[in-house]
Specification:
By secondary structure, the chain is α/β, with parallel strands linked by helices. It contains 10 helices and 6 strands; from the N terminus they run H-H-H-H-E-E-E-H-E-H-E-H-H-E-H-H. The protein has 2 domains: 75 residues, no CATH class; 133 residues, Transcription Regulator spoIIAA (2-Layer Sandwich), CATH 3.30.750.24.
């Protein structure tokens, strides 16, 4: 009976693989797949070679393991973006580049993916570099928009960062928290540590709150963007 079930299951898997491979054997489809995502194309080639050399189920098993390893590697190498106000656009923030400046005393950090166990250490080290710099920021605003949930390791990391920031008199603010993340903040004690008034619905809300609490610092206004050559001709 077990052999019959295995045979039927293997037959269905074989039909699925043959259908997928037949579609991929079109040159135009292969080029499209490669242009869209070279790394996924490489995994597909490895899976195909595995099916050909060691059989359907072992070959697919190899592909699944490699896909999981790739996912873990990608999650552990989470990118962290520093944001600044966009010239000419009120309440807008982008990754700091040549044309953008940061707000004095405030670092705005956006995680370009969820904060989890696999990348918590890298995130902590990146924030530590900011705290250990020549000019320690007065406040760090962390945008957690990509987190639809948060695990215990990530909350422990944030608790540790808050404790380190307190030693340098640096505030830690949070923006764009989803409800499950806010609940985990409450359960872990992180919410009590930072305070409900340091959680903001948007990045701009956090920025405006920071500016209002800085003596002598004007509220943020839209910065005039540099005029293009066409605009200069119109004004001349």
């Amino acid at each position: 009976m077990a052999e019959r079930v295995t045979s039927v299951f293997g037959g269905h898997i074989s039909a699925i693989v043959i259908h997928a491979v037949a579609r991929m054997m079109r040159i135009a489809e292969l080029r499209r797949f490669y242009r869209f995502h070279p790394s996924e194309f490489g995994l597909a080639v490895v899976a195909l070679l595995g099916v050909i050399t060691v059989g359907i189920l072992p070959g697919l098993g190899i592909a699944v393991v490699l896909s999981l390893l790739r996912f873990i590697w990608g999650a552990s190498h989470l990118s962290l973006s520093r944001l600044g106000p966009v010239p000419g656009k009120e309440h807008s923030y982008q990754v700091i580049g040549d044309a953008l400046d940061s707000i004095p005393g405030l670092e705005i950090l956006r995680l370009d993916g969820p904060l989890i166990l696999a990348n918590a250490l890298r995130f902590r080290n990146a924030v530590r570099l900011l705290l250990a710099g020549n000019t320690t920021p007065k406040a760090i605003l962390i945008n957690l928009h990509a987190n639809f949930g948060i695990d215990l390791a990530a909350t422990d990391t944030l608790l540790g960062l808050v404790a380190e920031a307190e030693r340098t008199n640096t505030e830690v603010l949070f923006a764009e928290l989803q409800d499950p993340v806010r609940q985990m903040f409450r359960r872990s004690g992180l919410l009590d540590r930072v305070g409900e008034n340091r959680l903001f619905a948007t990045v701009d809300d956090g920025v405006q709150d920071y500016l209002e609490r800085q003596p002598g610092m004007p509220a943020l206004r839209p910065v005039s963007a540099p005029l293009s050559e066409q605009d200069k001709l119109k004004r001349s």
